[in-house]
Amino acid sequence: MYRDDIEINDKQYWDLRFETDWDESQGRQQSRYFARVALDHLPSWLVQLARAQRMTICDWGCAEGDGTDVLAGYFGAGSVTGVDFSDAAIRKAASFLPATQIPGGGLGNGGRAIAAVRRRLFVQYPGAFP
User: Fold this and answer.
1) Considering the domain boundaries, does residue 88 fall inside one?
2) The dihedral of CA 100, 102, 107, 110: what is its sign?
3) 102 pairs with which residues across the strands?
4) Domains of the chain: total
5) What's the rounded Cα separation, in Å, for the pair 83 and 59?
6) If exposure means fewest CB atoms within 10 Å of the residue's CB, which of 48, 60, 72, 96 is most exposed?
7) What are the E-state strand segments in the chain?
8) Does residue 6 belong to any structural domain of this protein?
9) How many Å apart are CA 124 and CA 109, to the nearest integer?
């Protein structure tokens, strides 16, 4: 699957991953797992603020949208948008989760405030937020 002519983590790398071994590597399950871990570590003040101000949550690097779906289940459908730079991931997300907001490029947030939630940030730095 990996090729010497492709840099790890560039767009071509991720398109290839989503087109070849993402499913067999349990990428979809991992996305759901890490979204649940992020929710378990979100400070209550942030959850309250996001709900009170009706913020849009952006799952940046959403892959095939599975974590976005978990976040939407928690914050409410329509309040979470998934964004990824891999065209292959976005195509699959649109077919797997048609009700989840995953635009094919750009945030498409209609001018609403965005509370950017990057799952890995909360996994790597739990407790770093007041």
Assistant:
1) yes
2) negative
3) none
4) 1
5) 6
6) 48
7) 56-60, 80-83, 114-117
8) no
9) 27
